[in-house]
Fold each of these.
Amino acid sequence: MSEPDPYRYGPPAPQPAARFSGPTGKEILSSTWDLLKQDRAMIWLSLLGAASGVVAFLALFAPGFVVARLAGESSEVSGWIGAVLGGMLTSVVAIYFQAALVIGANVRADGGTPTFGGVLRQAWTLKWQIVQWAIVTTTVGLVVRLVEERLGVLGKIIGVLGGLAWAVASFFAVPVLVAGRLGPIEAVRESSRVIRTTWGTSLRTTLRFGVVQTLLLLLPMGLVFVGVMFLFAANGVVPALAVGAVLIVAGVLGFVGMSAIFGAITVYARALIYRYATGQPVPGLHPSLFAGAFVQKKRRWRRS
């Protein structure tokens, strides 16, 4: 008796491929942290960038406000002028340190060992691109703020949508700026192109990433809250006052330290995801971790 023909009724129907749900924000955070632990000095870039940003804002806000007041402008207008000038310099500082972190991530991914001074020197070679990008981002932020204030509720809606659209379009702007030394317009175009051609579940991953950060940052904030409660309930008792002060200091230091770590991880992760999205090697991270973050779109048309 002959064997039955398995293709008597045609080839078997293709089975649907297993659907990959993509990595969670926690997985990306953990994997990126494993890589960043090899470059602990890079974390100080995040902390130094935040501190320098505050100094930069005050360095131009105060002179701008005073000069505007001496020129006869109102307090409101003078505040706007000071805020714009301070915000511009703050953006320059922030982008400079972000570029340094991206350079550090690229050096590590290419098999090198980034150094604190080395990445800062390399970022300095991008100073003109950084200044141009800071001007663009500050201008966009100013326009969004003006729209929100001038158009009431409609302005709030437009501002939120506009800010979200800009955040998406400029998602890869700093990695693009570092990789191609492009101007701001070209950087946004390239960033948007990468987003359009590789968009997958990045929004979900980013939201989960933010949730993880928020939950962890609640711990030092809780210490500060408990410390304040101790101070209010101390009634002059020295031990209770001491405990409250210690808790507050520990909470503040913990919040600053964790914020610096998360800032470094965020920039590192974005640089590494950009490398993956553009086909560059990402050693130390399994490709499946990013397969759900940015999945290449499939064409919707068929050949006739």
Amino acid sequence: MDNKAVDRKNLVLFPLGTFGRDMIYALVTNFLLSFIMFTQNLNARQLAAITLIMIGARVFDALNDPVMGNIIERTRTKWGKFKPWLLSGILFTFFVVYSMFNNPFEGWAFVITFAILYFMYSIAYTMHDISYWGMIPSLSRNAEMRNKFTSRTTLIAGIGGTLANILIPMFTTGAFAIGGSAKIAYGRIALIVCLIAPVFLLFTIAGVREDRHYMQEKVPPVSFRKIISTVRNNDQLRWGCLYLLLQQIGNGLALSGIAATYIYFEFGYCGGLFSIYTTLGMLPTAFLMIFYPALSRRWGRRSLVKALSVIALSGYALSLLVGLALPSESVKFIILTLGYMASNFGQYGLYLIAMISILNTVEYNEYKNGTRDEAIIASMRPFFTKLSSAITVLIATGSYILFGILEYTNSISDYENLATRGLIGEEEKLMGIESVIRSATSGEADALLITMCVLPAILLIISSWLYLRKYKLDEKHYDDICASLEEKR
């Protein structure tokens, strides 16, 4: 099979592999905190313990990423260095995620088992995530082809994540909750998602062919020194990672649970409303998933950073002004959704730029230091994405405690658990929850809105300024480096 035929096949089969993986990621990252808040009655100490567990596990997860990348670099099998970790990692993830959302315990027993499972998840997901994204530099060294792999993969990832973001709130919250309660619904959805993920990843494992020249290279040692030296000696990698960290903290706040709680407090306890909000909010990103390579060719990443930043900031400003000024009616919901569409469009484009900017430092590393270190460099993206998610959890749970939201979510979880045990009917449950929501003040809801609009806008301004000032590896510079490396080969 010639190279063009291999590329065409890979461009289809590689992106399909992440469809289910991103459904799992969306379930855990965007809905785990909501699952806990709306199915468990927690006191402040228990919530604080869960917050510390989630932060600690995600920091551990982030630190584990480059270690996993280093281990993958050492792997030598007849299936290559990536595919064994894809298979073992996704099967381990199946077991852990299913158990996490079907935890039968309550109180401190729930907290303890949650801690064990969450740390196991940190290891399990990393096994297949680092190997998956680390494979891209081995699929092609051509910049245009790499843009195609990245954009198509993020398109399929976006479809998987968006479907999860649409369907999960719809079928876990309100009148359409599977089984009549959030706890039963989350357990069944976790099973479905965990079955979908390995099926789709088999397309990548069985069908994708990567360049395995690395099999002829000397196996690098497993050491923190190697990881640290790779980052220390690659200045463009460092600036790209800092840009990604700040951008992802801001981008993750809305879906950390804050936006869902705000929507429920403002417009009622209906998961369908939040599904509409996220569906329409994510819809414009499909344009970028498809046309990013063409946009990048025409304007370049630096110009796109400027334009996308302005679009995202406009969306945050619109959401904040309308949210504070208008009463809780349909017009307000529509305009809030339009604001989220604009901010999410801009932020998603900035995320794509961050991904490609980090991956392109592989060739910069080879040019400057003589080694590619693909898996280690690829591990930086999930490292800083997970580190950012730890910070968003801290901000979200801190907001719940600071603004008095915990009192309301505990009352809601009491009604949900009564319904789970069959002690009250669905209608009685919904009436009780609506009475809880009506007791919340407008100031408490507004505080959530300010958190999910103002803080992301500030972080976006800082991250984009740093990228434009410090990241120098633009298209021309990258092409020059690739040409120089090709001459050496």
Amino acid sequence: MSKSTELLEFVYQNAKMGETALPLVIGMVSRPDLRTALSGQLMEYRAIGSEAKAEMQRRGVKPKEPGGMKSAAAETALRLNTLADQSSGHIAEMMIRGSAMGTVQMQKRINACRYSAEPETLNLAERLLKTEENNIEQMKAFL
């Protein structure tokens, strides 16, 4: 598998994790401006995931969905983490932590593929990285 395809796969799986988690979080939020912000993030994850999937399909590669256990573990952790506190500040803090982890992982992958992946693929990965960084900045207002 080429470095570009590996990077596309990584972008796709990370975007899908955002797509999976955000509807659960949005369902917990009562504050309209926070719901709006999270909904915008969800749309961006969907757009990036769709672009990565389409490019993989164009290359004849079937995108791997994030593992069921990984998704289930993330959902369980989310539910446990919000049992005692579903305040806007706590939810924003959780989202910041998730985006920070995504930022670190994506930056590592971009650095590893910088000279071996195609520019279009790197651009999509950098778009996801910027999305994660913007999500962090956006959530700071709700702390």
